[in-house]
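Customer escalation, tier 2.

The customer says the design service returned an amino acid string that "doesn't look like it belongs to this structure." They asked us to rerun it and document both sides in this ticket. The original structure tokens are below, unchanged.
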């Protein structure tokens, strides 16, 4: 069933950038500031990446405590905001619609084959094939429900701090 579900509605990965207020970042902002190749040495004059290992993160927290107030609650809000944006995307709606259409076509073929087989059988064999048809119909109902309300997982969540000035805490290196 899992393979059938994945074939009908293949898993996909999407990236959603939200700001500190939960609003989705514009495509222009993402391409200009967030979707750049990693550059820890600052060879690109526009930016340098600084990984926030524990000592750097602690120093940043001490320097900007208001940004980290209620951190757990903020992360939950941002996750919910990103999830809401994903659920509202037309890409998801179109994928669900296409998966539902594929499922209907495949089911019609499978059900027609089983019904034809049932008509040519009698006795116990016909009963077994009817049960198979009922089982297929129940599986299909579950697959349709899965398409309608897909399982969505957040595999990776991160935080990016953007600053117009270089990271000032050289001692935290």
């Amino acid at each position: 069933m899992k393979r059938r579900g994945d074939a009908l509605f293949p898993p996909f990965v999407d990236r959603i950038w939200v700001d500190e207020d939960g609003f989705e970042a514009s495509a222009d902002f993402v391409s200009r500031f967030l979707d750049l190749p990693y550059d820890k040495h600052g060879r690109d004059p526009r930016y340098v990446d600084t990984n926030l290992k524990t000592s750097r993160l602690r120093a940043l927290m001490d320097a900007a405590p208001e940004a980290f107030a209620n951190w757990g609650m903020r992360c939950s809000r941002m996750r919910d905001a990103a999830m809401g944006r994903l659920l509202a995307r037309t890409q998801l709606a179109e994928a669900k619609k296409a998966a539902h259409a594929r499922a209907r076509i495949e089911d019609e073929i499978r059900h027609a084959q089983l019904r034809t087989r049932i008509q040519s059988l009698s006795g116990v064999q016909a009963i077994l094939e009817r049960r198979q048809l009922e089982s297929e119909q129940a599986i299909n109902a579950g697959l349709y429900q899965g398409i309608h309300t897909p399982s969505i997982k957040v595999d990776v969540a991160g935080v990016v701090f953007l600053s117009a000035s270089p990271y000032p805490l050289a001692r935290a290196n």
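Tier 2 assessment: The sequence is consistent with the input. The first helix runs from residue 2 to 8. The two ends are 51 Å apart (CA to CA). Sent an explanation to the customer and offered a walkthrough call.
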